[in-house]
């Protein structure tokens, strides 16, 4: 319930700090005194949009802060939004002079949507304007389902429905992919066979490029190697190896006479050994060189195939080409597995749909029973409010398809006149009748679980006398289980309240601003008498005020 509302620097409100009690609360005041302004401020903590035009003093920020008493049913919301839960939760909205807005829950900054989500669970505002929601099928569903008061049933249905929709969407996506694969599968199969025929081997391009270079220059390579071998081992003493050997022998005779000569000898010895090894390797390599035009042609053809495939698939290396091959094979594999996966998911979907259908039928049964009960319970309430011939019929039909609301469509049919034809609410009901119907529905829902603080904003417009008293009685009835705040011009309703606030304008030389105060017993008599006598209190008006109050 709403425990306290603090408003600063909003429209005609400079500063207002209002404590609220449980039960039935009445708010009265002259037209234009600021009752609607207070509701506008309250709308800020319900997540409504605002700008700097609402500021009384453009140099200061506007603050609207409300304290609510919460039960443990709100724990899940706070956990889901990573907020600290408190049984006394403070919601605050700030609007700066430049129009920027900030929202807080228990001093933690939150997104406006988060504040709005919580606010809608805490306060339910009804006026002749927004009772139009009663014409909305979603709201009609919420009335019936709240009356059923079996949250586990609806939670279970929503869980199955979410899983079913998820599976259905996944199957649709897979079938779309399968259709796309089928269009391209023949082409992918051709590419795969082309790769299979090519029989590409990791690293072969580099080896082939080296080989073709060797084969293309085989004659020159072989000639140069033969000449080099001759230079190294000419039979005469002019061969490099023989010359090194002779030099080595000469130095060996004098190496013992100086350290430097010994080092030179060792280097000559190493050079001799190295040249012998080079000669051996050149001989072996030279023997391996064959001028093979057939092999050259084969290597050229192989490389041309690789280059052609690289160009076709717009890659620059064999490694990238092999990746393309693997991707094509993967697509073909996925395509072959899609049908199997789709069939598996369809089987799972069928099982879930079967459970979902059973739950939908159970919900339909509960809705039909509940709608019949609501139709019966609401008649005496409507009669008390001057609608003695009114009839409400809740029409629940069954569809072949399932939605988040189950298998049903819902329509509230109404007729206010005896013997008249039942028609959809949107076509036949007036604003005043709609307000009283909403009030009656709230009364029917009174014992069906927790409801937020309910604010009735002048929904009693157009009623008077005994009917007004009956409207007040119904509000009083609802307030036995829920906090009810009624903004009213009717003394019969104001007198039923457990506590009574008055909104009034305070005029000074500099400005006019709105204030609100809780009335004492004597002040209530004066206020109700003022309403009765339209501003000029008479003894009879005062006596009637006392009679209404006591």
TrEMBL record:
Domain RecF/RecN/SMC N-terminal: 2-509
Gene Ontology molecular functions: ATP binding
Residue ranges the record marks as coiled coil: 164-221, 328-362
BP GO annotations: DNA recombination; DNA repair; SOS response
Record bears the keyword Nucleotide-binding: yes
GO cellular component terms attached to this protein's record: bacterial nucleoid
Job of this protein: May be involved in recombinational repair of damaged DNA.
UniProt name for this protein: DNA repair protein RecN
Entries under InterPro entries matching the protein: DNA_recomb/repair_RecN (IPR004604), P-loop_NTPase (IPR027417), RecF/RecN/SMC_N (IPR003395)
Species this protein is from: bioreactor metagenome
Gene3D superfamilies named in the record: P-loop containing nucleotide triphosphate hydrolases
Family per record: Belongs to the RecN family.
Record's keyword terms, sorted: ATP-binding, Coiled coil, DNA damage, DNA repair, Nucleotide-binding
Pfam families: SMC_N (PF02463)
């Amino acid at each position: 319930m709403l425990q306290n509302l603090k408003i600063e620097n909003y429209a005609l409100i400079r500063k207002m700090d209002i404590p609220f009690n449980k039960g039935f609360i009445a708010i009265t005041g002259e037209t234009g005194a600021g009752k609607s302004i207070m509701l506008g401020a309250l709308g800020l903590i319900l997540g409504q949009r605002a700008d700097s035009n609402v500021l009384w003093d453009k140099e200061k920020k506007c603050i609207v802060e409300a304290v609510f008493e919460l039960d443990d049913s709100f724990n899940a919301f706070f956990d889901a939004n990573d907020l600290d839960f408190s049984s006394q939760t403070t919601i605050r909205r700030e609007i700066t002079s430049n129009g920027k807005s900030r929202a807080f829950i228990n001093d933690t900054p939150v997104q406006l949507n988060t504040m709005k989500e919580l606010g809608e669970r805490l306060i339910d505002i009804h006026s002749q304007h927004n009772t139009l929601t009663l014409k909305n099928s979603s709201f009609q569903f919420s009335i019936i389902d709240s009356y059923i008061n079996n949250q586990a049933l609806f939670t279970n249905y929503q869980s199955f429905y979410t899983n079913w929709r998820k599976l259905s969407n996944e199957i649709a996506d897979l079938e779309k992919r399968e259709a796309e694969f089928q269009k391209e599968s023949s082409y992918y199969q051709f590419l795969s066979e082309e790769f299979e025929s090519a029989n590409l081997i990791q690293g072969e391009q580099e080896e082939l490029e080296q080989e073709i270079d060797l084969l293309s220059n085989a004659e020159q390579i072989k000639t140069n190697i033969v000449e080099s071998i001759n230079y190294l081992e000419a039979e005469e003493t002019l061969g490099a190896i023989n010359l090194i050997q002779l030099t080595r022998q000469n130095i060996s005779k004098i190496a013992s006479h100086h350290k430097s000569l010994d080092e030179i000898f060792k280097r000559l010895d190493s050079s001799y050994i190295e040249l012998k090894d080079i000669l051996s390797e050149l001989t072996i390599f030279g023997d391996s060189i064959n001028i093979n035009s057939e092999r050259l042609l084969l290597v050229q053809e192989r490389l041309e195939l690789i280059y052609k495939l690289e160009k076709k698939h717009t890659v620059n290396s064999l490694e990238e080409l092999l990746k393309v091959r693997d991707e094509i094979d993967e697509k073909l594999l996925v395509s072959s597995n899609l049908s199997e996966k789709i069939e598996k998911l369809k089987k799972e979907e069928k099982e879930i749909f079967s459970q979902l259908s059973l739950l939908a039928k159970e919900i339909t049964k509960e809705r039909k029973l509940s709608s019949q009960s609501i139709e019966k319970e609401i008649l005496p309430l409507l009669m008390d409010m001057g609608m003695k011939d009114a009839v409400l019929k809740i029409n629940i039909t069954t569809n072949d398809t399932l939605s988040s609301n189950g298998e049903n469509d819902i329509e509230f049919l109404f007729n206010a006149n005896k013997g008249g034809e039942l028609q959809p609410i949107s076509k036949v009901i007036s604003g005043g009748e709609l307000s009283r119907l909403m009030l009656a529905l709230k009364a029917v829902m009174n014992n069906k679980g927790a409801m937020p603080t309910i604010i009735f904003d002048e929904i009693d417009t157009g009623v008077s006398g005994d009917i007004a008293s009956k409207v007040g009685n119904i509000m009083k009835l609802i307030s036995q289980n829920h906090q009810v705040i009624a903004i009213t011009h009717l003394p019969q309703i104001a007198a039923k309240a457990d506590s009574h606030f008055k909104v009034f304008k305070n005029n000074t030389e500099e400005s006019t601003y709105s204030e609100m105060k809780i009335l004492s017993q004597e002040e209530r008599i004066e206020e109700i008498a003022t309403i009765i006598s339209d501003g000029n209190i008479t003894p009879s008006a005062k006596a009637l005020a006392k009679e209404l109050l006591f």
